[in-house]
Amino acid sequence: MPVTQIILQDVLILQVGTWAPKGEGSGGPSNVVTFALNHQDALTLKASREQGQIDLVLRRAGDHKIVKTEPVNLQYLNKRGEFNLVPVPSGQTGR
Fold first, then answer.
1. How far apart are CA 35 and CA 32, in angstroms?
2. What is the C-alpha to C-alpha distance for residues 37 and 41, in angstroms, rounded to an integer?
3. Which of 31, 32, 63, 72 has the maximum number of C-beta atoms within 10 A of its C-beta?
4. pLDDT per residue over 26-80, tens digit each?
5. How far apart are CA 85 and CA 40, in angstroms?
6. How many domains does the chain have?
7. What is the residue range of 51's domain?
8. Is residue 95 part of a domain?
C-alpha cells in the first residue's frame, strides 16, 4: 500500500542544479539536488528512491524546525473523514 512519509528533516542542501565551473551556468532548469548527509541518511535516501517515488519539499534557509507527522496512506485519509473518498472498484483507474 503506498504511503507518504517524511524520511529526512533539516538536511543541508549544498547545491540545486548541476555543478559547473565558476562563471558557467547550467543552461537551464535542473533536477539535481546535492545534499550533505551522513552515511546512514544517504543509505536511507537511496533505499527510499529504489522503493518508489521521492518528492522533495525544501524549506527556506535558516528554518530548522523539526516537525512530527503521521504516515499518510489511504486508510489514514479515510479515517480523517473530511475527504469523502470513494473506493474505486478493482481494475478501474478512477479517471
1. 10
2. 6
3. 72
4. 566 667 889 999 999 999 999 999 988 888 888 888 999 999 999 998 888 888 8
5. 37
6. 1
7. 12-80
8. no
Contact 30, 16 (CB under 8 A): yes
Contact status, residue 38 vs residue 10, Cβ threshold 8 Å: no
User: Cell numbers at residue 25, please?
Assistant: 551556468
Burial environment of residue 11 by CB neighbours within 10 A (0 to 12, 13 to 18, 19 or more): middle
Read off the C-alpha cell for 48.
Answer: 527510499
Reading the block at residue 35, the C-alpha cell is 545534499
C-alpha cell at 65: 524546525
Residue 95 has pLDDT above 70, yes or no: no
Q: What is the DSSP letter of 33?
A: E
